[in-house]
Model the fold of this input.
Amino acid sequence: MRLEKIRLLNDQAQNAQAKLEAHPETRELPFETPVDFSRFWLPESLTHLAHLPVYAEFTREEKLTYNQTFALMVIEQSILFEDQLSGFMKKVFQASPKIREKYPDLFQEGVDHFLREEEEHTALFWRLAHASDASYQGQKKFRYYQPRLLDKLATLLVLSFPKWGIVWSWLSLYGEEKFLLNYKEIKRASHDPATAIDPLHDAVHYWHMLDEARHVQMDEIFIEECWDPAPKWLKRINLKILEKIYQSFVVRSNSAWSLWKIACKKHPSLLRHSAKVKEQLRSLGSTASYQQIVSARSSIPRTSALFDARPEFAHFGKILPGYQRRHAHLVP
Done:
């Protein structure tokens, strides 16, 4: 185990927490300013439909409604992801004193920092959701992210068996890298006043990104500890699960159509595009610009590098259209 790396990450987490406690004003977010409904809440490049021809037919108001609905779905996805990840990590590393004793104190300290920060992120995202849509009425209830029953059951299956569901370490790394990509796109959009997103959404994603950069490095250690030592038969089973999850949630994004129906309820004029949207969403998995965002090396560099270094992922270029394997024996 890379204890010196973990020590460095722990020091960074402790320093960040100490600075925040000493100077809480450094993370004061502009919640007193109303969310700007005349702006996008996420860059268009991160949304599904912006990569399809039908999007060019939307009016400005229709684009805003779709974009803001998409942004609220991403917030809810982020909350669910971080809640489920935290719960699973507790089962894997901290379910009992006996399990805790298997890992060095430095590692457990790193897990504690990770879990504390994920809890902070969840609270921050709920606050952003409530500031963005009064219909939540202060409740922590999902309104925009509606996964299919089959996808829910698959997730539940993985989370129910912490000893065997080693796929979680790869899902964690992908999710954290995707959060970093989100802010990179937000930063890119901010250079043009016409595409810069709402300031509150920008600020929340910025502060979230600061912790995620460190979490990606912890995720690599989780893979080394949970995935790499696993027997080949267990890896094969989890690879099949990972393939299905990637194809459902990443490549095809099965949430796209349910989100569209929610957007149509908010802005009924969108209904006139429904036939084209439904037809063109079928090609999302082969749309190069979208796959560049969700699965290319430039978007998930550490995930790609770790795939490269492990022979069991040699076929993953067929699973993730944006991933092109490089021959690698060592990961820097």
